[in-house]
Specification:
This protein folds into 2 domains: 150 residues, no CATH class; 329 residues, Neurolysin, domain 3. The model has no long low-confidence stretch (mean pLDDT 96). By secondary structure, the protein is mainly α. Strand 2 and strand 3 form a beta hairpin. Strands 1-3-2 form a 3-stranded mixed β-sheet.
């Protein structure tokens, strides 16, 4: 007769086989999504929406399977700590998924796939009315989705948990409220400063030259080309696994720093993905720890490496080689950190005004899902909030409420993680600087491997072993706080703008 230990061991392996299968299906869907945004022919949507819908349905079936439920019940509390972490993560997803009818999962996937080309057309024509109907449909479906999971809770809170399951809505609203109440004063001090930062970029720069520049940047900071690739997309993103983590960027003729910044940002995401343990692929121990932590990695590399003076001392000559811009490291540093109060585009925003963009989106999508705002009112409310928070009003929908792709996918609840991740990046930067008192010297010398290794040891290698608060506490010694970001921002921009 087999012992209980043997039985539990065998059951756990059967359980892992099941978990891997639904993760593999999800990863395959991710490749199709990448292809749709990067390479798919314009008329491929009808077939792609069916393919994506089928994979979503299959993944949902595997995640809600009765055999998986039996495994979870039998294993909970009877396995070691690492295995228990896997059980915890799968159970959370399983319980949520079981509440959602398969038909709704399929409808959401198909609606999102169909909405993408409509959004692209609406954005190109700067006409929100073209996208209004698909967006309204997605809002209704997401409300229904939230109600299926828990009809007695705030539907927006339920949706946020798809992206950040372990930071509660009260904590998120408190942190965003702190940014909303604090940053305007700092932005106003910048506005009142007489300092004019350098801008050595003048005219237009060839896309091929910009691509050569960002590829060299990826080489410099250590992108693994054997497990990645660089492409262009309307909205830069990163996707993949520890074996295949791809990045995308986009090029603006008159703003090469935009492509460079977004490429380094997406590298941060990919570096996290590539730092996950190979042997745990397909299990929660080989998955990233949700979006707050993921965004912290991209913001760390973009802001606390790529926007520093030591980086420009390293990389300034490369800019001259590829773009012909003869500028000092200080001038490049200033150009990459200028605060543009009149900037309408989130992905082009500086470190200060960026968070007001996030607060705006957070408030609008929260009110949409809670039923406090009609979809038809989005352009007007968007423009009013832009004027109130940033003192600028969009003239066209394309530079206003149509600029982001997230709602096209039904991703309501995602935006807060951008600010949360930025705050965590500053907190990690402070911790790394305690670990390496010569951090700036390492950046200037191009010694990025020790930094990447530290992040892998403290963050990447753990996958989902710990909850978000636990992981942050282990890595930094304290809970997530806005303190480090606000101190960093005040010191950095006070120095730049002399106040």
């Amino acid at each position: 007769m087999a012992s209980k230990e043997t039985t539990d061991s065998d059951r756990y392996e059967e359980f892992l086989d099941h978990v891997r299968k639904y993760n593999y299906v999800g990863d395959a869907a991710g490749v199709l999504s990448w292809d749709q945004q990067v390479m798919m022919p314009d008329d491929g949507t009808p077939a792609r929406s069916k393919q994506s819908s089928t994979l979503s349905t299959l993944e949902h079936e595997l995640l809600t399977d009765d055999d998986l439920a039996a495994h979870l019940e039998a294993l909970d509390g009877s396995v070691d700590d690492d295995q228990q972490a896997v059980v915890r993560e799968v159970k959370r997803k399983h319980r949520r998924a079981r509440e959602v009818p398969e038909e709704l999962v399929e409808e959401l996937s198909e609606a999102s796939s169909n909405a993408l080309p409509v959004w692209e057309e609406a954005k190109a024509e700067s006409d929100f009315s073209k996208f209004e109907e698909p967006l309204e449909h997605l809002v209704e479906l997401r409300r229904e989705y939230a109600a299926e999971i828990d009809p007695d809770r705030d539907p927006y809170e339920v949706l946020v948990e798809d992206y950040e399951p372990y930071l509660d809505i009260e904590t998120i609203e408190k942190i965003l409220g702190e940014l909303k109440s604090t940053l305007p004063d700092l932005i106003e001090q910048v506005s009142e400063s007489d300092v004019e930062l350098a801008d050595p970029f003048d005219g237009e720069y060839d896309e091929a030259d910009q691509e050569a520049l960002v590829r060299e940047a990826l080489d410099e900071i250590g992108y693994n080309w054997d497990r990645g690739r660089l492409d262009t997309a309307p909205h830069p993103f990163s996707t993949g696994t520890q074996f295949d983590a791809r990045v995308t960027t986009r090029f603006s003729p008159d703003d090469p720093l935009d492509a460079l910044g977004s490429t380094i940002h997406e590298f941060g995401h990919a570096r996290y993905t590539l730092g996950l343990p190979d042997e745990q692929y397909g299990t929660p121990l080989g998955e990233s720890r949700d979006m707050t932590v993921h965004e912290s990695q991209s913001r760390f590399w973009e802001n606390h490496v790529g926007r520093t003076l030591p980086f420009w001392r390293l990389f300034g000559s490369t800019v001259e080689d590829h773009l012909g811009v003869d500028a000092s490291p200080q001038e490049l540093y200033e150009a990459s950190n200028e605060v543009y109060e009149d900037n309408l585009i989130r992905v082009e925003a500086d470190e200060l005004t960026y968070h007001m963009h996030i607060v705006l989106r957070f408030e609008i999508e929260r009110d949409l899902i809670r039923g406090d705002l009609d979809v038809s009112e989005v352009p007007q409310v968007w423009n009013e909030k832009m004027e109130e928070y940033l003192g600028v009003r969009p003239e066209h929908d394309s530079e206003g409420c149509l600029q982001d792709i997230h709602w096209t996918y039904g991703n309501f609840g995602y935006f807060p993680t951008y600010s949360l991740g930025s705050l965590l990046a500053a907190q990690l930067d402070a911790t790394v600087r305690e670990e390496f008192d010569d951090l700036d010297a390492k950046i200037e010398a191009g010694e990025f491997e020790p930094i990447a290794d530290w992040l892998t040891e403290e963050i990447h290698q753990h996958g989902c072993r710990y909850t978000t608060p636990e992981l942050i506490e282990r890595a930094t010694g304290e809970s997530l706080t806005a303190e480090y970001f606000l101190d960093y921002a005040g010191e950095k921009y006070g120095d730049l703008y002399d106040f």
